[in-house]
Design a protein that fits this description.
The chain has two domains: about 200 residues, inorganic pyrophosphatase (n-terminal core); about 120 residues, Diaminopimelate Epimerase, Chain A, domain 1. Helix content is about 35%, strand content about 20%.
Protein backbone atom coordinates (compact mmCIF):
# COMPACT_ATOMS: atom_id res chain seq x y z
CA UNK A 1 0.00 0.00 0.00
CA UNK A 2 1.28 3.46 -0.90
CA UNK A 3 2.34 5.85 1.86
CA UNK A 4 1.51 8.86 -0.30
CA UNK A 5 -0.84 11.35 1.34
CA UNK A 6 -4.42 11.32 0.20
CA UNK A 7 -5.20 13.89 -2.48
CA UNK A 8 -7.44 16.72 -1.20
CA UNK A 9 -9.87 16.23 -4.09
CA UNK A 10 -10.56 12.60 -3.17
CA UNK A 11 -13.36 11.14 -1.08
CA UNK A 12 -11.88 8.41 1.15
CA UNK A 13 -12.77 5.02 -0.28
CA UNK A 14 -14.61 6.50 -3.27
CA UNK A 15 -13.75 5.44 -6.83
CA UNK A 16 -14.01 8.47 -9.10
CA UNK A 17 -14.82 6.82 -12.42
CA UNK A 18 -17.63 6.92 -14.96
CA UNK A 19 -20.84 5.17 -14.00
CA UNK A 20 -22.97 6.36 -16.91
CA UNK A 21 -22.74 6.59 -20.69
CA UNK A 22 -23.23 9.70 -22.83
CA UNK A 23 -26.59 8.35 -23.96
CA UNK A 24 -27.72 7.78 -20.37
CA UNK A 25 -26.81 11.31 -19.34
CA UNK A 26 -28.44 12.64 -22.49
CA UNK A 27 -31.64 10.84 -21.50
CA UNK A 28 -31.68 12.51 -18.10
CA UNK A 29 -30.99 15.91 -19.62
CA UNK A 30 -33.69 15.55 -22.27
CA UNK A 31 -36.26 14.49 -19.65
CA UNK A 32 -35.48 17.42 -17.33
CA UNK A 33 -37.87 20.33 -17.04
CA UNK A 34 -35.01 22.62 -15.99
CA UNK A 35 -31.25 22.21 -15.60
CA UNK A 36 -28.94 24.26 -13.40
CA UNK A 37 -25.33 24.17 -14.60
CA UNK A 38 -22.52 24.78 -12.10
CA UNK A 39 -18.75 24.43 -12.23
CA UNK A 40 -15.71 24.96 -10.04
CA UNK A 41 -14.99 28.20 -8.19
CA UNK A 42 -13.06 30.72 -10.32
CA UNK A 43 -14.01 29.22 -13.70
CA UNK A 44 -11.40 29.02 -16.45
CA UNK A 45 -11.99 28.77 -20.19
CA UNK A 46 -12.88 25.08 -20.07
CA UNK A 47 -15.29 25.48 -17.17
CA UNK A 48 -17.05 28.37 -18.87
CA UNK A 49 -16.93 26.79 -22.32
CA UNK A 50 -18.47 23.53 -21.07
CA UNK A 51 -21.17 25.42 -19.18
CA UNK A 52 -22.04 27.57 -22.19
CA UNK A 53 -22.01 24.67 -24.65
CA UNK A 54 -24.28 22.55 -22.47
CA UNK A 55 -26.65 25.47 -21.85
CA UNK A 56 -26.83 26.44 -25.51
CA UNK A 57 -27.27 22.82 -26.55
CA UNK A 58 -30.12 22.25 -24.11
CA UNK A 59 -31.87 25.46 -25.13
CA UNK A 60 -31.64 24.42 -28.78
CA UNK A 61 -33.71 21.30 -28.06
CA UNK A 62 -36.22 23.06 -25.81
CA UNK A 63 -34.82 22.24 -22.35
CA UNK A 64 -34.59 25.31 -20.14
CA UNK A 65 -31.26 25.78 -18.38
CA UNK A 66 -29.30 28.36 -16.42
CA UNK A 67 -25.65 28.78 -15.45
CA UNK A 68 -24.38 29.88 -12.05
CA UNK A 69 -20.69 30.67 -11.51
CA UNK A 70 -18.77 31.83 -8.46
CA UNK A 71 -15.49 33.59 -7.86
CA UNK A 72 -13.35 35.75 -10.14
CA UNK A 73 -13.28 35.08 -13.87
CA UNK A 74 -11.26 36.60 -16.69
CA UNK A 75 -13.45 39.31 -18.30
CA UNK A 76 -12.09 38.28 -21.69
CA UNK A 77 -13.81 34.91 -21.24
CA UNK A 78 -17.09 36.60 -20.34
CA UNK A 79 -16.81 38.61 -23.56
CA UNK A 80 -17.77 35.40 -25.38
CA UNK A 81 -21.13 35.18 -23.59
CA UNK A 82 -24.40 36.47 -24.99
CA UNK A 83 -27.58 37.66 -23.18
CA UNK A 84 -29.37 34.43 -24.07
CA UNK A 85 -26.86 32.48 -21.97
CA UNK A 86 -28.67 33.33 -18.70
CA UNK A 87 -25.45 33.29 -16.72
CA UNK A 88 -25.40 34.64 -13.18
CA UNK A 89 -22.69 35.23 -10.59
CA UNK A 90 -23.36 33.51 -7.28
CA UNK A 91 -22.88 36.02 -4.48
CA UNK A 92 -24.02 33.76 -1.64
CA UNK A 93 -25.71 30.43 -1.04
CA UNK A 94 -28.97 32.12 -0.10
CA UNK A 95 -29.38 33.29 -3.69
CA UNK A 96 -29.57 29.64 -4.75
CA UNK A 97 -32.20 28.87 -2.14
CA UNK A 98 -34.32 31.71 -3.51
CA UNK A 99 -34.42 30.11 -6.96
CA UNK A 100 -37.02 27.63 -8.16
CA UNK A 101 -35.72 24.10 -7.60
CA UNK A 102 -34.10 22.70 -10.77
CA UNK A 103 -35.15 19.22 -11.80
CA UNK A 104 -31.53 18.38 -12.66
CA UNK A 105 -28.13 19.83 -11.73
CA UNK A 106 -25.12 19.41 -14.01
CA UNK A 107 -21.67 19.82 -12.46
CA UNK A 108 -19.05 20.28 -15.17
CA UNK A 109 -15.23 20.34 -15.27
CA UNK A 110 -14.89 19.15 -11.68
CA UNK A 111 -16.01 16.43 -9.33
CA UNK A 112 -14.20 17.67 -6.23
CA UNK A 113 -16.07 19.00 -3.22
CA UNK A 114 -13.17 21.29 -2.38
CA UNK A 115 -13.53 23.06 -5.74
CA UNK A 116 -17.19 23.80 -5.25
CA UNK A 117 -16.68 26.10 -2.26
CA UNK A 118 -19.93 26.83 -0.39
CA UNK A 119 -22.09 24.81 -2.82
CA UNK A 120 -21.22 21.60 -0.98
CA UNK A 121 -24.12 21.41 1.47
CA UNK A 122 -26.61 22.54 -1.19
CA UNK A 123 -25.44 19.82 -3.58
CA UNK A 124 -25.29 17.10 -0.91
CA UNK A 125 -29.00 17.60 -0.27
CA UNK A 126 -29.72 16.96 -3.96
CA UNK A 127 -27.35 14.16 -4.98
CA UNK A 128 -30.11 12.21 -6.72
CA UNK A 129 -30.48 15.14 -9.12
CA UNK A 130 -26.79 15.75 -9.85
CA UNK A 131 -24.95 14.55 -12.94
CA UNK A 132 -21.26 15.15 -13.68
CA UNK A 133 -19.16 15.72 -16.78
CA UNK A 134 -15.43 15.83 -16.11
CA UNK A 135 -11.97 14.93 -17.39
CA UNK A 136 -9.97 15.11 -14.16
CA UNK A 137 -8.54 11.98 -12.57
CA UNK A 138 -9.47 13.09 -9.05
CA UNK A 139 -12.86 13.75 -7.54
CA UNK A 140 -15.52 12.65 -5.13
CA UNK A 141 -19.17 11.73 -4.74
CA UNK A 142 -20.56 15.03 -6.03
CA UNK A 143 -22.58 13.54 -8.89
CA UNK A 144 -24.74 10.44 -8.57
CA UNK A 145 -24.29 9.76 -12.28
CA UNK A 146 -21.21 10.95 -14.11
CA UNK A 147 -18.85 10.62 -17.04
CA UNK A 148 -15.17 10.91 -16.10
CA UNK A 149 -12.96 10.61 -19.16
CA UNK A 150 -9.33 11.34 -18.35
CA UNK A 151 -8.30 10.61 -21.93
CA UNK A 152 -9.98 13.88 -22.95
CA UNK A 153 -7.99 17.11 -22.98
CA UNK A 154 -10.93 19.22 -21.81
CA UNK A 155 -14.36 18.89 -20.29
CA UNK A 156 -15.79 20.27 -23.53
CA UNK A 157 -14.33 17.22 -25.28
CA UNK A 158 -16.15 14.98 -22.78
CA UNK A 159 -19.37 16.89 -23.40
CA UNK A 160 -19.42 16.43 -27.19
CA UNK A 161 -20.67 12.79 -27.15
CA UNK A 162 -23.46 13.85 -24.78
CA UNK A 163 -24.52 16.62 -27.14
CA UNK A 164 -24.33 14.17 -30.05
CA UNK A 165 -26.59 11.77 -28.14
CA UNK A 166 -29.03 14.67 -27.71
CA UNK A 167 -28.93 15.24 -31.50
CA UNK A 168 -27.71 18.81 -30.91
CA UNK A 169 -26.47 20.62 -34.01
CA UNK A 170 -23.08 22.04 -32.99
CA UNK A 171 -23.35 24.64 -35.76
CA UNK A 172 -26.26 26.40 -34.06
CA UNK A 173 -26.31 29.08 -31.35
CA UNK A 174 -22.50 29.38 -31.14
CA UNK A 175 -22.25 25.95 -29.50
CA UNK A 176 -19.11 25.12 -31.48
CA UNK A 177 -17.49 28.35 -30.30
CA UNK A 178 -18.05 27.47 -26.63
CA UNK A 179 -16.69 23.95 -27.16
CA UNK A 180 -13.63 25.30 -28.96
CA UNK A 181 -13.00 27.76 -26.11
CA UNK A 182 -12.63 24.93 -23.61
CA UNK A 183 -10.61 22.73 -25.93
CA UNK A 184 -8.18 25.49 -26.89
CA UNK A 185 -7.60 27.01 -23.46
CA UNK A 186 -7.18 23.70 -21.62
CA UNK A 187 -4.56 22.57 -24.14
CA UNK A 188 -2.68 25.89 -23.99
CA UNK A 189 -3.96 26.70 -27.48
CA UNK A 190 -2.92 23.19 -28.60
CA UNK A 191 0.64 23.43 -27.22
CA UNK A 192 0.27 20.96 -24.33
CA UNK A 193 1.01 17.26 -24.67
CA UNK A 194 -2.70 16.57 -24.14
CA UNK A 195 -3.37 17.92 -27.65
CA UNK A 196 -3.21 14.62 -29.50
CA UNK A 197 -4.80 13.60 -32.80
CA UNK A 198 -8.32 13.35 -31.35
CA UNK A 199 -8.09 16.94 -30.13
CA UNK A 200 -7.13 18.20 -33.58
CA UNK A 201 -9.90 16.16 -35.19
CA UNK A 202 -12.43 17.70 -32.81
CA UNK A 203 -10.99 21.18 -33.38
CA UNK A 204 -11.45 20.72 -37.12
CA UNK A 205 -15.03 19.58 -36.61
CA UNK A 206 -15.77 22.62 -34.44
CA UNK A 207 -14.21 25.01 -36.95
CA UNK A 208 -16.31 23.44 -39.69
CA UNK A 209 -19.33 24.03 -37.44
CA UNK A 210 -18.55 27.75 -37.20
CA UNK A 211 -15.97 28.23 -34.45
CA UNK A 212 -13.75 31.14 -35.51
CA UNK A 213 -10.38 30.27 -33.97
CA UNK A 214 -8.82 33.64 -34.78
CA UNK A 215 -11.67 35.65 -33.28
CA UNK A 216 -11.74 33.48 -30.16
CA UNK A 217 -7.97 33.81 -29.70
CA UNK A 218 -8.07 37.58 -30.16
CA UNK A 219 -10.91 37.98 -27.67
CA UNK A 220 -9.30 35.82 -25.00
CA UNK A 221 -5.58 36.36 -25.48
CA UNK A 222 -5.16 39.71 -27.24
CA UNK A 223 -7.53 41.92 -25.32
CA UNK A 224 -5.51 42.87 -22.24
CA UNK A 225 -5.88 46.04 -20.18
CA UNK A 226 -2.99 48.40 -19.32
CA UNK A 227 -3.29 47.37 -15.66
CA UNK A 228 -2.69 43.74 -16.63
CA UNK A 229 0.55 44.69 -18.34
CA UNK A 230 1.58 46.69 -15.29
CA UNK A 231 1.05 43.55 -13.19
CA UNK A 232 2.97 41.46 -15.71
CA UNK A 233 5.91 43.84 -15.40
CA UNK A 234 5.80 43.60 -11.61
CA UNK A 235 5.53 39.81 -11.70
CA UNK A 236 8.56 39.50 -13.99
CA UNK A 237 10.43 41.97 -11.80
CA UNK A 238 9.89 39.64 -8.83
CA UNK A 239 11.17 36.56 -10.67
CA UNK A 240 13.29 34.15 -8.61
CA UNK A 241 14.62 30.69 -9.40
CA UNK A 242 14.67 27.69 -7.08
CA UNK A 243 15.28 23.96 -7.36
CA UNK A 244 18.58 24.51 -9.21
CA UNK A 245 16.92 26.90 -11.67
CA UNK A 246 14.26 24.45 -12.81
CA UNK A 247 11.42 26.31 -11.09
CA UNK A 248 10.61 29.98 -11.62
CA UNK A 249 8.62 31.78 -8.93
CA UNK A 250 6.92 35.18 -9.24
CA UNK A 251 5.05 37.10 -6.55
CA UNK A 252 2.31 39.73 -6.59
CA UNK A 253 1.13 41.37 -3.38
CA UNK A 254 -1.43 43.79 -2.01
CA UNK A 255 0.71 46.81 -2.90
CA UNK A 256 0.89 45.70 -6.54
CA UNK A 257 -2.91 45.59 -6.80
CA UNK A 258 -3.23 48.96 -5.08
CA UNK A 259 -0.60 50.66 -7.26
CA UNK A 260 -1.83 49.33 -10.61
CA UNK A 261 -5.58 49.19 -9.98
CA UNK A 262 -5.61 45.62 -11.32
CA UNK A 263 -7.85 42.83 -10.07
CA UNK A 264 -7.52 39.06 -9.90
CA UNK A 265 -9.43 38.56 -13.13
CA UNK A 266 -6.64 40.29 -15.05
CA UNK A 267 -3.89 37.88 -14.04
CA UNK A 268 -4.86 34.98 -16.30
CA UNK A 269 -1.86 33.60 -18.19
CA UNK A 270 0.85 35.58 -16.39
CA UNK A 271 2.09 32.40 -14.70
CA UNK A 272 3.02 30.98 -18.12
CA UNK A 273 5.56 33.67 -19.03
CA UNK A 274 8.67 32.15 -17.34
CA UNK A 275 8.11 28.89 -19.25
CA UNK A 276 9.68 30.70 -22.19
CA UNK A 277 13.04 30.23 -20.44
CA UNK A 278 14.75 27.09 -21.70
CA UNK A 279 16.04 25.85 -18.34
CA UNK A 280 12.72 26.37 -16.54
CA UNK A 281 10.54 23.26 -16.20
CA UNK A 282 7.83 24.77 -14.00
CA UNK A 283 6.52 28.23 -13.19
CA UNK A 284 4.68 29.30 -10.04
CA UNK A 285 2.85 32.58 -9.38
CA UNK A 286 2.15 33.49 -5.74
CA UNK A 287 -0.59 36.10 -5.39
CA UNK A 288 -1.65 37.74 -2.15
CA UNK A 289 -4.88 39.55 -3.04
CA UNK A 290 -6.13 39.56 0.55
CA UNK A 291 -4.10 39.96 3.68
CA UNK A 292 -2.57 36.74 4.96
CA UNK A 293 -3.87 34.50 2.16
CA UNK A 294 -1.84 33.52 -0.90
CA UNK A 295 -3.07 31.94 -4.12
CA UNK A 296 -0.61 29.59 -5.81
CA UNK A 297 -0.79 28.99 -9.57
CA UNK A 298 1.37 26.21 -11.02
CA UNK A 299 2.32 25.45 -14.62
CA UNK A 300 4.88 23.05 -16.10
CA UNK A 301 6.24 21.95 -19.45
CA UNK A 302 5.64 18.54 -21.05
CA UNK A 303 8.37 15.89 -20.60
CA UNK A 304 11.75 16.75 -22.09
CA UNK A 305 13.94 14.40 -24.14
CA UNK A 306 14.85 12.41 -21.05
CA UNK A 307 11.17 12.03 -20.17
CA UNK A 308 11.38 14.06 -16.97
CA UNK A 309 8.82 16.69 -15.99
CA UNK A 310 7.40 18.35 -12.88
CA UNK A 311 3.94 17.11 -11.88
CA UNK A 312 2.40 20.33 -10.58
CA UNK A 313 -0.84 18.55 -9.71
CA UNK A 314 1.09 16.54 -7.14
CA UNK A 315 2.91 19.67 -5.95
CA UNK A 316 -0.35 21.62 -5.56
CA UNK A 317 -1.82 18.71 -3.59
CA UNK A 318 0.82 19.30 -0.90
CA UNK A 319 -0.90 22.64 -0.28
CA UNK A 320 -4.45 21.27 -0.41
CA UNK A 321 -4.98 22.08 -4.08
CA UNK A 322 -4.92 20.19 -7.35
CA UNK A 323 -5.60 20.27 -11.07
CA UNK A 324 -3.71 18.69 -13.95
CA UNK A 325 -0.18 17.36 -14.36
CA UNK A 326 0.86 20.58 -16.11
CA UNK A 327 -1.60 23.10 -14.62
CA UNK A 328 -2.82 23.31 -11.04
CA UNK A 329 -3.60 25.67 -8.20
CA UNK A 330 -3.83 25.95 -4.42
CA UNK A 331 -4.33 28.48 -1.63
CA UNK A 332 -2.53 28.81 1.68
CA UNK A 333 -3.25 30.91 4.76
CA UNK A 334 0.06 32.74 4.70
CA UNK A 335 1.54 35.98 3.43
CA UNK A 336 3.80 36.03 0.37
CA UNK A 337 7.07 35.58 2.26
CA UNK A 338 5.77 32.65 4.29
CA UNK A 339 4.15 31.07 1.21
CA UNK A 340 7.50 31.28 -0.60
CA UNK A 341 9.28 29.66 2.35
CA UNK A 342 6.73 26.86 2.43
CA UNK A 343 7.16 26.35 -1.31
CA UNK A 344 10.93 26.15 -1.00
CA UNK A 345 10.55 23.63 1.82
CA UNK A 346 8.21 21.40 -0.17
CA UNK A 347 10.50 21.41 -3.19
CA UNK A 348 13.59 20.71 -1.10
CA UNK A 349 11.72 17.89 0.60
CA UNK A 350 11.08 16.23 -2.77
CA UNK A 351 14.78 16.07 -3.73
Amino acid sequence: MSDAPEHPWDDPGFSYVSNATPRELAGRLRAAESVLIVTHHKPDGDALGTSLALHRGLESIGVRSEIVISGPIDPNLLALTIPADRLERLENLESLDERPEPSLIAVVDTGAWTQLESLGDWLRARTDRVIGIDHHARGGSVAGERIVDTSCASATQVLVPVLDALDVDLATDRIAEALFLGLATDTGWFRFSSAGPEVYRLAARLMEAGADKDAIYETVEQNASPSRFAMLARALGSLRFIDHGAVAVMTLGLADFADTGANLEELAGIVNEPLRIGSVRASILLTEAESGRTKMSFRSKPPNESGSFIDVNELAARFGGGGHVHAAGARVDADLDEAFRQLEGKLEGSD
